[in-house]
Write a structure and sequence with these properties.
The complex is a heterodimer of chains A (about 475) and B (about 300). Helices cover about 70% and strands about 0% of the residues of chain A. Chain A has about 475 residues and is mainly α. Chain B has two domains: about 1-40; about 50-130 and about 175-300, Rossmann fold (3-Layer(aba) Sandwich), CATH 3.40.50.
Chain lengths: ~475, ~300
């Protein structure tokens, strides 16, 4: 079920009404849980079983870690829990990739494994397994484990209920934002209709739906030529514009989804973490990763980069850690080597940036230098998105070759104009942030026009929505 | 103290929410009113999918039923509106086949005197949910009365249409000839590749049966059906995909019972990619197609095979 489908609006309206009915107030958690399971089962009913197994496993293991008295026992439980979550992710998401990569080295899979490999990718598996790992590690780390995620030591039944809700909470079930266990559990409490932050929820939903339905869904059509072999017919300049358009689309799609998730969660009384913070104005690659998919970056930093040693073990080890985290982070996005390559590109960029940190280019505070740095980061990030759009490395290579080789073909202004039209609001969105940060005088009159801006965005959702399309990150 | 702060925050929030709601209603009203008064002529939209939607809406919501309608695929879609004139509609839709256009005509009840049925892509493209989407309520009825809700009048389509008119002087779907020789050869090779595989027999049989049913319904409603094939490169004439479709449709609609345009296409027709003509060439082909004379009675309902 997509947040943009009419059926979802009916579903959410029904859940919302029941949720705040005073007689059902004590049943809010079970109701939300039932709604989340229905939401998930709507698209892939048979894969609900996998979600339930994964959630139950994380609940049991985390409870065992919580109640175990000895450190060694807690560690054993935690290792088993993390390994089980990774095994589920590995089998269901990466089984096909491993099988293809090892074809010829090992024999064909047996019948059961072959059956598993034919299953479609369970939606949201990357997110709910990461949530499970976060829960287990959070509980393990704290000296007072219960207080980390639960206000007081819960009963096994309560912990199971809370964990199921944490892992299946439908606004963030299929594509995040990834919320850490110690941020979610304390929020599990009875919610009151009067406490809803309507204004913040409305603003998040308007901007989210605008980014998704107006920008991303229309750019989906405008950038359809960025597929093999269609792009071979395009001029070099058109190819660069297509890549630029895809860069705008993936931002609008995922930032839009995240804002919708945040807005929906607010209506149900929950706070989800911010996931995007105007990433395309980043002046460095390290800054980019504090602004793009922030919840994943934070997760990777906390649960992978720091445990690997972070930047505390010397230059060489830092570079190795960066490459490891970014390659694995890339592979987290999809079961294809091109995603690892995409992550590797970002890892290399981060390493190169660290090496060049002392140069004048990076130290100069001047406006031109800052614009050049933003341009460099945006250019590299945009070219790297090619591996997302064309997950076969050979196709991506053909695309880069066409950028170089198709200079003789005539530029077609029509498709470029459409991409420019839809990119303009994304650029304006970032420019507004830059002005706000710089304290521009325009901001003194801006609040008066804020309702008008939201009104125009809302009417654009009605009049200019593109063809319904799935969220890009649902495939991850 | 905290409760008064909270109350003022809530009051401020409610005021802001009300302002957003009012601004939204005003913006919706202004745009709907503007389009109702202005009703600009939109020749083509921002992309091919919009162009398809615009063609369908032009047919569905026009005051008068056109004299003739072309139904088919992206191949007949290449015939430019300037060649057709105002009394002929083109429901040959890119990424669809003739069944989509026929079903739209049948479900709308707007039956023209003559329907030109391009058979090239029968059995070769899926079109299951598109027509249901077109006629889904309440959108179908609302769009009749609130023009601004149509894809045709999306702000982006209006903007791009005006821009195109300002820069090029005309605003319509147009496919210029591919001039670059190497690119043309690449496209032809791609076209040849796509025609090597015949459609799945079950899908082809299903489409032909549906074609028979729709042809029967529309003939009964008074339309004369003229079947035709869009010209393709000579070396593709015997490709598996072409032969399979041609044989299946000819068997269902034999020439002694159905009207076929069997005139040879004008000499010098050149495709862009083996199967799709450029707009100028497609316009030339239309002149021979429009002149088709049907000596035989219109297609009668035929039982499925």
């Amino acid at each position: 079920m997509l947040f943009t489908e009419p059926i979802f609006f009916a579903f959410f309206a029904g859940v919302f009404c029941l949720y705040y009915l005073p007689p059902l107030r004590r049943l809010q958690v079970p109701l939300l849980l039932a709604a989340s399971l229905c939401f998930y089962a709507y698209g892939q009913p048979y894969l609900l079983l996998l979600l339930l197994i994964s959630a139950a496993l994380s609940a049991i293991v985390s409870y065992a870690v919580m109640v175990s008295a000895r450190r060694a026992a807690r560690l054993r439980w935690a290792i088993a829990g993390v390994a089980s979550n990774l095994a589920i992710l590995g089998l269901f998401k990466y089984g096909g990739l491993i099988e293809r990569s090892l074809a010829g080295v090992v024999g064909p899979p047996d019948d059961l494994l072959a059956l598993v490999l034919t299953l479609p990718l369970p939606i949201g598996i990357s997110f709910y397994t990461f949530h499970g790992i976060s829960l287990i590690v959070d509980v393990l780390r704290s000296p007072n484990a219960a207080a980390t995620v639960e206000a007081a030591r819960p009963t096994a039944g309560q912990h199971l209920k809370h964990t199921l809700l944490y892992l299946t909470f439908f606004p963030q079930l299929v594509a995040g934002p990834i919320i850490k266990a110690h941020n979610f559990y304390p929020q599990i409490a009875a919610k009151r209709f009067a406490d809803i932050d309507w204004l913040a929820a409305t603003k998040a939903l308007i901007v989210g739906y605008f980014l998704k339905r107006v920008i991303a869904d229309n750019l989906q059509n405008a950038t359809y030529l960025l597929s093999y072999p269609a792009f071979l017919t395009q001029s070099s300049l058109n190819l660069l514009v297509l890549d630029f358009g895809y860069s705008m689309r993936i931002f609008a799609d995922f930032a839009g989804y995240s804002l919708i998730a945040i807005g929906l969660a607010k209506l149900l009384g929950y706070e989800l973490p911010q996931n995007f913070n105007f990433p395309y104005i980043a002046e460095s690659f390290s800054e980019f990763w504090t602004r793009w998919h922030m919840s994943l970056s934070a997760w990777l930093r906390e649960y992978l980069y720091y445990p690997l040693g972070g930047n505390r073990k010397g230059g060489g080890r830092t570079y190795l850690n960066l490459m490891t985290v970014m390659c694995l982070g890339g592979l987290w996005h999809g079961a294809a080597w091109s995603y690892a390559l995409w992550g590797g590109c970002h890892g290399l960029a981060l390493v190169a940036e660290r090496l060049a940190r002392g140069t004048r280019f990076y130290r100069s505070p001047g406006l031109v230098s800052r614009i050049a740095r933003i341009g460099l980061v945006f250019g590299v990030v945009t070219l790297a998105w090619t591996f997302f759009r064309l997950p076969h490395i050979a196709e991506a290579a053909a695309f880069f070759a066409a950028i170089v080789g198709n200079r003789h073909l005539p530029f077609q202004p029509g498709p470029a104009a459409v991409i420019a039209l839809y990119a303009a609001p994304v650029i304006a969105y970032h420019a507004w942030y830059v002005w706000r940060r710089a304290g521009s005088p325009i901001l003194h009159i801006a609040p008066r026009f804020e309702p008008v801006a939201y009104g125009v965005l809302a009417s654009a959702i009605l009049f200019n929505a593109g063809p319904l399309d799935a969220f890009i990150y649902f495939q991850f | 103290m905290p409760s008064s702060i909270s109350n003022s925050r809530i009051a401020g929030g409610a005021r802001a929410l009300r302002a957003i709601a009012v601004a939204t209603l005003v913006a919706i009203g202004c745009y709907a009113g503007l389009i109702a008064l202005w009703q600009p002529t939109i020749g083509a939209g921002q992309d091919q999918e919009s162009d398809v939607a615009i063609a369908v809406e032009r047919f569905l919501y026009a005051d008068a039923v056109p004299d003739a309608v072309i139904v088919g695929s992206s191949q007949a879609w290449r015939i430019p509106p300037r060649a057709l004139g105002p009394r002929v509609a083109n429901l040959a839709l890119a990424a669809h086949n003739a069944l989509t256009g026929l079903e739209i005509i049948a479900r709308s009840g707007r039956v023209p005197h003559r329907i030109y049925v391009e058979i090239n892509m029968i059995g070769r493209v899926r079109h299951d949910r598109f027509v249901d989407g077109v006629f889904a309520e309440p959108g179908y009825t609302l769009k009749r009365y609130v023009a601004a809700l149509r894809t045709t009048y999306q702000p982006a389509n209006v903007a791009i249409s005006l821009l195109r008119r300002a820069v090029r002087g005309r605003d319509e779907v147009d496919y210029p000839r591919v001039q670059d020789r190497a690119l043309h050869d690449t496209l032809i090779a791609g076209g040849e590749q796509s025609m090597t595989q015949a459609p799945e027999p079950r899908v082809l049989a299903g489409d032909v049966a549906k074609l028979q049913r729709l042809a029967g319904v529309l003939s009964s409603a008074g339309a004369e059906l003229v079947f035709f094939e869009m010209p393709i490169e000579p070396q593709l004439e015997e490709a598996n995909a072409v032969v399979a479709v041609r044989e299946a449709v000819h068997a269902a609609f034999p020439a002694d019972r159905a009207c076929w345009n069997q005139d040879a296409p004008p000499l010098g027709l050149v495709s862009n990619d083996g199967t799709h003509l450029d707009s100028e060439t497609a316009a030339k082909f239309w002149t021979t197609l429009a002149a088709t004379s049907c000596q035989r009675p219109a297609v009668a309902a035929m039982p499925g095979k």
